[in-house]
Design goal:
two-stranded antiparallel ribbon, flat, 8-stranded mixed sheet, single chain, alpha/beta, Glycerol-3-phosphate (1)-acyltransferase
Length: 489
Amino acid sequence: MAYRILAWFLRVITRVFFRQIEVAGLEHVPLDGPVLFAGNHPNSLIDPILIITTCGRKVHFAAKDALFKGRIMRMVLNGLGAVPIKRRDDRDGTREPAKEAAPGAAPVDNDAAFDAMFAVLGDGGAIGIFPEGLSHDESQLARLKTGAARLALGGAQRTNKPIKIVPCGLTFIHPKRFRSRVLVQFGPPIEVTAARANTPEEVRTLTADIDGGMRRLTINAPDWDTVRALDVVRRLYQPQEISIEDRVELARRFNTYYAAVAADPRVLALMTRVRAYQQKLDELGITDRELARDLSKLEVSARVMRHLTLVAFWLPLSLPGAPLHVPPLAFARLASSKLTPRKDVVATTKLLIGLLLVMLAYGAAVMLLWWKVGFWWGFIAMFLLPMSGFATLRVLDRVRLVRRGLGTLFRRLRFRREVNALRAEREALVDAVVATVTAVKPKDVKALFPPDHPDRLEESWRASRNADLDAEFDKDAAEARADADDEAQ
């Protein structure tokens, strides 16, 4: 019961913090039986919360024992069934389980933690783990620790049951921003049976399999500058109005195969043009999305008026609770980056500060009304304040869109000549991107459609203007489907 209440509460919190949470691959999550969720770790405590609130299973996460020191945090983690793991700090900042300790390092006893997780798996439960070890803000997956593989192999032998490892991919559109969007993906499970020996060789092999499963769900590049430049290429190449899942999948493919063609003169020339194009966008303060839509001043004005109308509708409902909602949100936004030196915990800090301040404000308001006016007014406020908070979110979202619309309209009027020139340059870049991608696609790549989802973006690619590339992708998808049918048989 405690887990259900906490999971429901966390689900509400994430729906408040994120404007959109898109979930893909739920069909890969087993409805019962022992499961090990293995995910990437880009955003601190928000990562396990997202898996808990989207996977449909009760998940017991392994958490570092330092998190259990605070009374409130310990109560929450115990309610969620978290298992404390002891770690040690290496020179390079990584933290390894005791069995992977370097020669001469002090051993760390995690036998009790592993026994607890084996017990969960033996009961047909689910364990969550982040094989990278630490949360980080790097542009690619860190080297995976072997703890997940050892847990799966050991659990299969101890319980004599097959353990299914489900790779998880968390992709944040703006990792540190309030009211942003996130994609949660679950990949095809990797099954580990008791017949598989728990040897160092098997551990390394399974860790490599887990790494491959996670990389198929995440975007990996050598640095953030490359990620940003390839994201521009992706936007110039893709059809308009596709889902977050399709966008992330296309971005992943570009980043995966970029290294093989990065030295090609055609790619070097294209990336130079793309970076210059992005720099001009930054200088004008507009986005590629705004430029691609080519909305007239009348259309932009109509959108602004529609958002203003919705602001006028939600504003009266938000006003009663605005004194309780706006200051905590503003404080969390302004102070979060100053309260933590690590970029990967900024969003978590925002969420925790905002939640704590709003809950304290709610409690103080309810008690004050109860004391001054009476019990029933305090009771009514318990329901009215969250409703007012919801209206406040609607107002903030619409105000953001109004500001964006007015900014677009202002730039259309002030930089009309520059915007028109940049739009013409974008059209030329689209042709150059399609032609270059067609020309440099690695010939030895069997399929750009991974076998586990062979034609996920088939319709998106059909919208591309290059028929030759479409035919090549269709052929690859057919080969992948034939391989999948052979494996199934």
